Amino acid sequence: MLKINRVHHIAIICSDYERSKRFYTQTLGFKVLQENYRAERNSYKLDLEVGNHYQIELFSFPDPAPRPSRPEAAGLRHLAFEVDNISDAVAAIVADGVVVEPIRVDDFTGKRFTFFADPDGLPIEFYER
């Protein structure tokens, strides 16, 4: 039987590299592991550490296609990050100008969660531990 150990990375293509780099490093606080410019592709690749376990690869490409709709397009629905305290996490990103939906409670788990978007409209969820 196939054995998959864990998620290795999540790749995101952004439309404005500097704006998205600021959002993921400063607003969300992810640590930069490595940043490379690939001249042959006119593309940056930024590796970000998420909680000592996971990695986001942030790519820039000339003229990427827009996301079809939010959040119910076929494909990736949203990206979810676990937080210890959702109220504290929301306060931190709201202070940086991020618009956040009202906090809701999951009907099945009783856990609190909310949604917001990255600079390109990618739906992101905070889910309380």
Automatic annotation (TrEMBL):
Metal-binding is among the record's keywords: yes
Residue ranges of domain VOC in the record: 6-129
Keywords, comma-separated and alphabetical: Metal-binding
InterPro entries linked: Fosfomycin_Res_Enzymes, Glyas_Bleomycin-R_OHBP_Dase, Glyas_Fos-R_dOase_dom, VOC_core, YwkD-like_dom
CDD domains named among the record's database cross-references: VOC_Bs_YwkD_like
Coiled coil, from the record: none
Pfam families named among the record's database cross-references: Glyoxalase
Protein name as catalogued: VOC family protein
